[in-house]
Design brief:
15 strands, disordered N terminus, four-stranded antiparallel sheet, Porin
Length: 236
C-alpha cells in the first residue's frame, strides 16, 4: 500500500514538473554582445522553466604585431565560432550554468619579412624578398562550459547578458613556410647565398624548428577564455 502511494506521488510530481515545463516552453529573444570571442549575436528560446536553448554566433578580425623567438610577425587574428548552448537556470532566475558545442573557425595568419634579418631556428636569414608565412588553426569543434547571468525568459522583455567560460579548442596546428632569396648564415657562422629558401634543406630544417617552437608557445590557447557582455530583448 505504501509503495503504491509512493509511486502515485512520484508520478504526480513528475506530471506537475512536466506541465510546468510545458507552460514555460517557447518564446523567442535575440541579443547582441561583445567580448573575447568577438562580436556576437544570439537567439534564445525556453525549453521549460529551468532550461533555455541558445543559438550563438561570434566573429571578429584583429591585426597586431608580435615577436616570437626573435622573429617579428605581422599577424591577423580571425575569430569565428557558432553553435548551440544549453543554459540551466537552477533557481529559475538570472544565474545560469552553460554547456554546449561550437563550430570553431578561430585562427591566425602570420607574415614576417626579413630585409634586416630573421632568426629562424639556428640560422639567420637576410634578404629583401625573404619572408616567412604562417597559419594557426584549431580543431573545428570546441566544447564549451561556463557560467553567466541573464535569463531572456523572465522579467521584462529587456535583459542583460554576461558570460564567462572556456572553449576547449585543442592544441594549435601551426604551418610555417619560407620563400624568396636571402643570405643565410648557418649555425657554424658561415654565410652563403640561397636563391630559393623553399628548397634549401638547411633552411627547411630551421623552419621546422621554428614551427615546433611556435606550436609550443601557442599551446596555452587550447583553452580559450570567453568573456561576453551584451543586451537582448524578448519578442514573445
Amino acid at each position: 500500500m505504501k509503495h503504491a502511494f509512493g509511486a502515485r506521488l512520484a508520478l504526480s510530481a513528475l506530471g506537475l514538473l512536466c506541465a510546468t515545463g510545458a507552460q514555460a516552453a517557447g518564446g523567442l529573444a535575440v541579443g547582441v554582445k561583445a567580448g573575447t570571442a568577438g562580436i556576437g549575436v544570439e537567439a534564445v528560446t525556453s525549453l521549460n522553466s529551468v532550461f533555455n536553448l541558445r543559438g550563438v554566433g561570434n566573429f571578429f578580425n584583429y591585426d597586431y604585431d608580435t615577436t616570437e623567438d626573435g622573429v617579428d610577425y605581422q599577424s591577423e587574428l580571425e575569430l569565428r565560432s557558432y553553435g548551440l548552448l544549453l543554459d540551466l537556470h537552477p533557481f529559475k532566475g538570472s544565474f545560469r550554468i552553460t554547456a554546449g558545442g561550437l563550430g570553431n573557425g578561430n585562427g591566425a595568419t602570420l607574415v614576417a619579412t626579413c630585409p634586416g634579418s630573421c632568426e629562424v631556428g639556428d640560422v639567420t636569414i637576410q634578404g629583401n624578398d625573404a619572408r616567412l608565412d604562417g597559419a594557426v588553426d584549431f580543431k573545428k569543434f570546441a566544447p564549451y562550459v561556463g557560467l553567466g547571468f541573464g535569463n531572456a525568459m523572465v522579467g521584462s522583455g529587456l535583459y542583460g547578458i554576461f558570460d564567462i567560460g572556456v572553449m576547449f579548442q585543442g592544441e594549435p596546428d601551426v604551418a610555417l613556410a619560407a620563400s624568396g632569396s636571402a643570405i643565410v648564415t648557418g649555425s657554424n657562422g658561415l654565410s652563403r647565398p640561397v636563391p630559393d629558401l623553399s628548397s634549401d634543406p638547411e633552411v627547411q630544417d630551421a623552419v621546422a624548428q621554428e614551427q615546433a617552437s611556435l606550436q609550443d608557445d601557442l599551446k596555452d590557447f587550447q583553452f580559450y577564455p570567453v568573456v561576453n557582455i551584451g543586451i537582448g530583448y524578448r519578442f514573445f
